[in-house]
Amino acid sequence: MLEEVGIPRLVVAGISSGSGKTSITLGLVTALRARGRTVQTFKVGPDFIDCAYLAHASRRPCRNLDSWMLGQAGVRRTLARGVMSADCAVVEGVGGLYDGHGRGEAGASSAAFPGSTAEVARLIAAPVVLVLDAWYMGETAAAIALGIKQLDVSGSVVGVILNNVPSDYRRRVVEDAVWNMAHLPVLGALPRLDAVHIPEVRTGLLPLAQNPHVDEAIELLGRAVQRHCDLDLIERLMSRAQPLHLAPARAEAAGGRPVRVGVAFDDAFCFYYAENLEMLEEAGAEVVTFSPLEDRGLPRDLDALYLGGGVSEAYVPRLSGNRAFIESYRRARSAGIPTYAECGGVLYSARSLRTSDGSVHAMAGVIPVDIALEAGSLHTGYRDVRIAEQCMLGAVGTRLRGHEYHFARLLSATEGMSPAYNMHDSDGEPLGCEGWTAEGITASLVHLHFGQDPMLARRIVDAARSARQRREARSEELSAV
């Protein structure tokens, strides 16, 4: 991994959700690619859906820069890992620029806004461009820009891009006011683009796989940025990002024969942090993908299974109906294949799943629990967990940080399994027990980013290797009889 990051980079921030950050970022990425740039995208926070759109626009996996889950060193490591072979980096913020959550690391300044886009911009030494929606605003936009700038103790904010500008007259009014009052240049002013279709649902943007207009929308946004933004100036500002020096990473060579880790990956299972799979490979795993939607069975000779996030209600009938694959999954569990099931993997592994229309679908039954998906039972937020029972993720008491976002409600208690975690929210308030663990399986509705602890992936690989050695030893014993 790099020990210094000198790549041109920019953070696209807003004053709130819904200000147009994603649209501006998609347009900027597309416009830069049209100039021949290889663009690496990042998303502040734990979001998967925005990441999918950014990855689609850049043609490279998008990565999450989450200072609460990863810590300061983890954020910088993720940046360095992602920008290899790229020409520049564009980071989409989350919420408002200064909106944070949870407590910062020990010794952090009260002005650091822990967990916020501003904190991430400071950690990666990147300039920030502020997106302002000008549809209902005139000179007030200058007051907002001035307030943002006054709180910007690191001097990161370098300009403004206006979104949803209703007329040339409004653009001139806002542009003059922002420059005269806040002394910030307006780098672009995009008109309202009614032809762009990126619908929002109650959980945020419509998932990428369910949006048939995504390519058209990204192309329109790219053309709009090319036409209405000063790309030459934006690139000059990106190139002003100061080199970021990283602490030398202590690489630990993977030992032993590689293990084959099967990863569920299709439209139903698509919420993974890119680093999770990369770190498994670095720890000595060969990642083998499979589709519970399409395949009739698991790949041969797997040593571990990883079923990640996803499973929209739209896919539940197909998942439940693919009984051949479910039987293959059950056989793997009966054979003692170590399994890590996360969020969507829990839904798939449950005994039954009731969707919002009242239908009940038989699932894999690997975890003896019944679950309902209900719009009114949203569980969301950062989670501070401590391992409650020795498992493939670590010893009892190991502290991990993750994120929860789901509509699952438990309809029954589990039998024969222990809780995986003792869980608190980001402010330290106790939330009780969470997840389940038993021989060879750990399952939880909390998403974990392996970048917070390089040993997480290593422990999963070690568990897979140990289980394989036990199976081989039993096979040898049987052969000797």
Features of the shown structure:
481 residues; alpha/beta; Rossmann fold; 2 domains; 6-stranded mixed β-sheet; 13 helices; 28 strands; elongated
User: Any idea what the CATH superfamily of the largest domain is called?
Assistant: P-loop containing nucleotide triphosphate hydrolases
Mean pLDDT: 91
CATH topology of the largest domain: Rossmann fold
**Number of helices in the DSSP assignment:** 13
Overall CATH class of the largest domain: Alpha Beta
Low-confidence blocks of residues: 104-110
Major beta sheet summary? 7 strands, parallel
Tell me the domain tally: 2
- Report strand %: 25-35%
N/C terminus separation: 50 Å
Overall 3D shape: elongated
Q: Strand arrangement, largest sheet?
A: 4-3-5-2-6-7-8
Number of strands: 28
Level-2 CATH architecture of the largest domain: 3-Layer(aba) Sandwich
Structural class: alpha/beta
Helix content: 25-40%
Report Rg.
Answer: 24 Å
Secondary-structure blueprint of this entry?
Layout: E1 4-5, E2 9-13, H1 21-34, E3 39-44, H2 49-58, E4 63-65, H3 67-82, E5 88-92, H4 117-123, E6 128-133, H5 140-151, E7 157-165, H6 168-182, E8 186-191, E9 200-201, E10 204-205, H7 214-228, H8 231-239, E11 244-245, E12 259-264, E13 269-271, H9 274-282, E14 285-290, E15 304-307, E16 309-310, H10 316-321, H11 323-334, E17 339-342, H12 344-349, E18 352-354, E19 360-362, E20 370-373, E21 379-387, E22 399-406, E23 408-410, E24 421-425, E25 430-434, E26 436-438, E27 441-444, E28 446-448, H13 455-480
Parallel strand pairs: 2-5, 2-6, 3-4, 3-5, 6-7, 7-8, 12-14, 12-15, 15-17, 17-27, 18-20
Antiparallel strand pairs: 1-11, 9-10, 13-16, 18-19, 20-23, 21-22, 21-24, 22-28, 24-25, 26-27
Helix pairs in contact: 1-2, 1-7, 5-6, 9-13
